[in-house]
Amino acid sequence: MDSRVQLQQLSMSFGDFTAVHPLDLDIRSGEFFSFLGPSGCGKTTLLNIISGFLTPTSGTVTIGGEPMASVPANKRPTSMIFQNLALFPLMTVAENIEFGLEVRGISKPERRKVSDRLLELVDLTGSGDKRIDDLSGGQKQRVAIARALAVEPRVLLLDEPLSALDLKLRQHMRSELKEIQRRTEITFIYITHDQGEALTMSDRVAVMSAGRLQQVDEPMTLYQNPATPFVAEFVGENNRIAGEVVGNDNGRVQIKHPSLGVLEGISTEAMAPGTACSLYVRPERLRLVGEDASPVNRLQARLDVVNFEGAFLMLESSIEGLSDPLKIQTEHSTMPASLTKDHPVSLVFDPADALVMPESAAEGGGHAQGLD
Amino acid sequence: MLKALTDRFGLPVSVTILLLLWFWLIVLVILPQLIMIDYSFRPNLLPAQMGGPEDGYTIGNYQTLANNDIHRTIFFKTIWSSILVTFLTLVVCYPVAYFLAQLASTRQAMLIALLLVIPYWINEILRTFAWYLILAFQGPLNAVLLGLGFIDRPIRFLSGDSGVLIGMVYAYLLFMVFPLYNALESLDPNQVRAARNLGAGTIRTHWRIIIPHAKPGIATGCIMTFMLAAGSYAVPALLGSPGSRWFTQIIYNWFFEGGDWHMGAAYAFVLLILCIGFIALVMKVFKIGLGDIGR
Amino acid sequence: MSAQRFFHYTIRVYLVVFFLYMFLPLIIMSLATFNDSRFPTVWPWRDTTLRWFGELWADTAMWEALGTSVVVGFGVLALAVPIGVSAGLFLSTYQGRAKNFYYSLMLSPLLTPGVIIGISTLIFWRNLGVSGGIGLTIIAQTTFIAAYVMLMVLARLQRFDRTQELAAQSLGATHAQIVRRILLPYLKPAIITAAVIAFLQSFENYNTTLFVRGFDTTLTVYIATKVRTGLTPAVNALGLIMIMVTVLAAVIYELLRRKDLDKAGKGT
Ligand SMILES: Nc1ncnc2c1ncn2[C@@H]1O[C@H](COP(=O)(O)OP(=O)(O)O)[C@@H](O)[C@H]1O
Ligand SMILES: [Mg+2]
For the whole model, what pTM was predicted? Predict the structure, then answer.
């Protein structure tokens, strides 16, 4: 079963407003693929185009090699799970699950077999005759999944399906969704504004901002090698120090900050001296050190806040000349007991752990997949 | 228009919807009114005169109304009495609606709502007939008044306009209570408390806070009541006397006794204009739109 | 006693007086049924009797009028409900500039005096060669009763979650299947109450019917005629029965509405 989803030069405008800028994307068969981006960036619009609810302004959608342009929503090999689930309140659980088969004219006993199997899959065996209103949030969630799977779609589209659940349930459903995807081998296209969801479940993630693709990669790559400042800041925690390129040799870049002096990081692209840029370093890559440490990339700061996060501590410390405090993640064991609030601290980071990106990358997001 | 519908319902259902809608709006609502207006500007002709020189548009029917003292007087009396009925109904209903919306506990409110709904669903003719019995010359009202010594002689309630007024207030009360209630229900009780806190008395609170909030409800109630009163045939027919005729009764006579439908159409159109004028006036005074009517 | 307490006290007294005013006439009318007097009255009370029910039972003209009313009621129901549902669906779908215009136009029959609806219908159809009678009565009443149905359907549609339609579509349902399996079942309670109300509205209508009835007499017209010519307590007996039927209908309607509200309150 080929369930690749290809988007070619796809774009969507509402009047003067462009919700999705032209983009190309190739989602592999059987992949768990996520779109991650802040609310309003065009995720739902994209999903609605793939499902056939919206006709794109330009471009094409191809599923399993078949162009979808003339295929209406109810004939596409996709099925969708909605943000609010949209279960049918006047039907029982089983009738909800069987609805897609009923409208295809499949006989009652056949349908019953399918719904029994799916109820088992989502762990709701025996709940077929319940009313939707009598289910808990998590159970409704599972019914929605079972209902969408009943029609044996090649592609399952999920629009922030976990956002209405509480934290515990959300985390539980993550692993369950992943498990269902693994067993059914269906292509999942999942959209969310929650990076935790996207990073834990997905094979690949597309990060979106303001209707443009910023980067499409595996979760690990997104975290370690963000392609744009947006991705660096949106995926995981990051510290940003803005400056100006002063030196550049073989991937090593020196930047100058007006009050912190020269700092060093790495970059994947050549930047001419004088280019405005940002240096990103993750909280877990900042180390607390004594006065005698190496002078490269050393920052003098004052400790403001110590947050206990369970497995580790998250510190915030302010530096003269930086508007936002720096975040530092540290183990309990490496934290000297004498360090308390308002104490001066020295921080260092390895140049290899610091990514330097030109400021201009912030607008285009061009070099990942976006094509304009 | 068709696209929005077919996107949602598909072609066959959409076409059915539009056909039913157009049948209603064009054949039942618009065309009859237009034909009635056309009719009102034509003279009443014998079959032999049709197509002759006199067969054309004329304002003669309207001139008849303007020149006929009795009809004119009845027309103005109908306006004036309908306004009076509207005002009385508003005054009678306001406390009830206010209590129901703001003061009543949930159980009280349910009971009152049910008590209001029941007479609402009872036939207008029956409600009017009930007053006919009460107001009768030898009826219970006269008996009670006589027994209490308020009067020495029974009163002929049914030979003036008073019976008609009482009957109309009674018959149309509920068209006032429910719009008022709907508007008052949405008032945040904290607003009333805040006004009290700031030192406003009961009457001032109503005048400055509650009544302005209820404006759309008051407007809807007044429009409905006035329209029903001015257009009522049943109540004046049952509770009035030949000496206290209503404008609708004259219209009826043109149709079924005078045999001049053109004249009747002209009179009916004047009544329609009156109601439209009243609606426009109320909407202007209360600064509301048609969309606010009917919730 | 503070001014506010006094106000609350007064308003309660007022309510009692108000409901006496609402119900006393109906009670007096009902009581008069049982008084053995030629003219319906409760004063003086001659003797308690049930004979007026017998007279009513034997009144063939009454039965004929009742039959006419029922035929008209079902006719109106059959016409006004589909029209009103269509209008509600239309208004909840169409978002164009003329939406307000359509809404006002559909509301206008409720703001037009009933006699005028009767008159314009009578004139219009006479031009087409149709004269007064049961058919014209159905048409005239439908003109404004469809607007009531429209309001009720619209009110329910406003609480409808339209993603259900998208969900059905994504599961493969055609437009027709969505209408049949999702939309109509959702609207069913509103359609049922609208049908009951349409029937009652038709049954009790007088002002419009008077002009378009031709030589046919509905029960309401019959009562009005009886009151003016040949009034006997048999009319009260009829009134009493009609009150009891309407109270029953009103109570059932209220219960249905409550149930409906409960359902909507829970939501999905
Ligand atoms: N039908 C529409 N008409 C106009 N603008 C729309 C429409 N649908 C979505 N938009 C706009 O497109 C942008 C993207 O919306 P959406 O795809 O829903 O974002 P997301 O799902 O990422 O939160 C938003 O700014 C939204 O206001
Ligand atoms: Mg969204």
Answer: 0.86
